[in-house]
């Protein structure tokens, strides 16, 4: 049974509406002024409110604004009862959030028809809200599943830790690190274009393939070969037009050497001690995103790893942060931040995240926030 709230300071109008609507099978509550009506609305969360426009102290327009500002009443339909018939008055009511108008004197058949139409819209809004909540819950479960697949941090013989904050929507970031043999540590991070399940599923598929080493005839110690094989396997024409960027590296702890290749991905940052200061090197090679072109070429590069060096690998979501003035906080600023915070021995990734969260103009990030830190000791 639908709940209807009538707000009117005229007892005769109250009784007319109460009797008419109760005969139609609705549950009707009445309030004699705006303040009482708002309190009743918060308590009952009715399907529909019929409110007189002209009332002392709190007018129908003011009641409407307060009701529409309350998220708990987002599906409540609000009808203004009025003898004002000008276009300007109706525009004023619509701007305040009113969903419909009932003219005085009240024509009962029109009243019943408008109420039925308003309740249909209320039910539709409720159904959409429930469907949205279910979808958000399912996406949250999927995001938690992706998070459960990500590796745990480890400290020996190389320290690796990560910070992953999914955006409101399920995203396409994924990463992993594992020992290929006693000396070789593979590290990668990928970012599938877009959001939702269509982005998350390819990232999980890549993670499972690389973790199980299920792709045949591939040298997992050679980053360019890994990217080339993935590009052959995940062509976007066969993957719902989805492509992804990726950075893949292999560190040999005996040789103190890192071999790496990238596919349209942001550069990794290697921060090394240099006397009393530090030096920062961006590690990136040419290469199109994986899946974009079947004949894409990928190149390896290498660098020696000095003692006490730190490697950072991340997706573009960590630095493409929209600012209130419309600008975007970028890679250069993020590089400066990592360099400044690199010497802090405890909770460094938490501090970097907190800095960027404070910088973000929104409650949540627009994209997944993924950052890997590899400390070579």
Task: Throw out a few tags for this protein.
377 residues; alpha+beta; 5-stranded parallel beta sheet; 5-stranded antiparallel beta sheet; 17 strands; 36% helix; 26% strand
Describe the structure.
The structure is a single chain. With 377 residues, this protein is an alpha+beta fold. The protein contains 9 helices and 17 strands. It has helices at 11-23, 34-44, 60-68, 87-96, 108-149, 197-212, 223-233, 331-341, 348-359, and strands at 3-7, 27-31, 48-52, 77-82, 100-103, 159-165, 173-179, 184-192, 244-252, 257-263, 268-274, 277-283, 301-304, 310-314, 321-322, 328-329, 369-375. Strands 2-1-3-4-5 form a 5-stranded parallel beta sheet, with helices on both faces. β11 and β12 form a beta hairpin.
Computed structural class: alpha+beta
Overall average pLDDT: 89
Share of helix, binned: 25-40%
Strand content: 25-35%
Number of DSSP helices? Answer: 9
Number of strands: 17
Query: Main β-sheet: number of strands, strand sense, barrel status?
Result: 5 strands, parallel
Order of helices and strands: EHEHEHEHEHEEEHHEEEEEEEEHHE
Shape: elongated
Q: Strands of the largest sheet, in order across it?
A: 2-1-3-4-5
Distance between the termini: 68 Å
Which ranges are low-confidence, i.e. pLDDT below 50, for 5 or more consecutive residues?
none
Radius of gyration: 30 Å
Q: How would you summarize this macromolecular structure in one to three sentences?
A:
The chain is of the alpha+beta class. The chain has helices spanning 11-23, 34-44, 60-68, 87-96, 108-149, 197-212, 223-233, 331-341, 348-359, and strands at residues 3-7, 27-31, 48-52, 77-82, 100-103, 159-165, 173-179, 184-192, 244-252, 257-263, 268-274, 277-283, 301-304, 310-314, 321-322, 328-329, 369-375. The strands form four sheets. It has a five-stranded parallel β-sheet, with helices on both faces. A five-stranded antiparallel β-sheet has the order 6-17-14-11-12, covered by helices on one side.
């Amino acid at each position: 049974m639908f709940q209807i709230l009538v707000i009117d300071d005229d007892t005769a109008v109250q009784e007319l509406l109460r009797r008419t609507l109760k005969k139609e099978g609705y549950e009707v509550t009445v309030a004699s002024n705006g303040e009482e009506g708002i309190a009743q609305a918060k308590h009952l969360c009715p399907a529909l409110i019929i409110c007189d426009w002209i009332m002392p102290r709190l007018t129908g327009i003011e009641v409407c604004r307060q009701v529409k500002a309350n998220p708990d009443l987002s599906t409540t339909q609000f009808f203004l009862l009025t003898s004002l018939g000008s276009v300007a008055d109706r525009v004023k009511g619509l701007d305040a959030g009113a969903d419909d108008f009932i003219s005085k004197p009240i024509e009962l058949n029109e009243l019943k028809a408008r109420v039925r139409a308003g309740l249909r819209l209320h039910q539709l809004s409720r159904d959409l809200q429930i469907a949205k909540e279910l979808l958000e819950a399912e996406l949250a479960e999927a995001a938690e599943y992706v998070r459960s697949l990500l590796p745990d941090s480890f400290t020996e013989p190389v320290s690796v830790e990560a910070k992953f904050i999914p955006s409101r929507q399920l995203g396409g970031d994924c990463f992993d690190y594992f020992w290929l043999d006693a000396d070789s540590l593979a590290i990668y991070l990928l970012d599938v274009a877009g959001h939702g399940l269509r982005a998350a599923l390819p990232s999980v598929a890549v993670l499972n393939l690389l973790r199980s080493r299920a792709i045949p005839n591939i040298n997992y110690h050679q980053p360019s070969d890994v990217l080339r094989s993935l590009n052959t396997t995940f062509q976007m024409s066969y993957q719902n037009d989805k492509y992804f960027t990726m950075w893949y590296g292999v560190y040999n702890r005996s040789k103190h050497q890192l071999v790496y290749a990238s596919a349209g991905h942001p550069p990794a940052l290697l921060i090394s001690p240099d006397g009393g200061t530090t030096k920062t090197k961006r590690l990136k090679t040419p290469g199109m995103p994986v899946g974009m072109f079947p004949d894409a070429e990928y190149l390896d590069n290498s660098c020696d790893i000095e003692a006490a060096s730190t490697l950072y690998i991340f997706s573009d979501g960590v630095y493409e942060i929209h600012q209130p003035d419309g600008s975007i906080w970028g890679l250069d600023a993020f590089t400066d931040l990592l360099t400044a915070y690199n010497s802090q021995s405890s909770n460094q990734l938490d501090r970097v995240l907190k800095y960027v969260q404070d910088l973000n103009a929104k409650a949540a990030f627009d994209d997944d926030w993924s950052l890997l830190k590899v400390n070579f000791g």
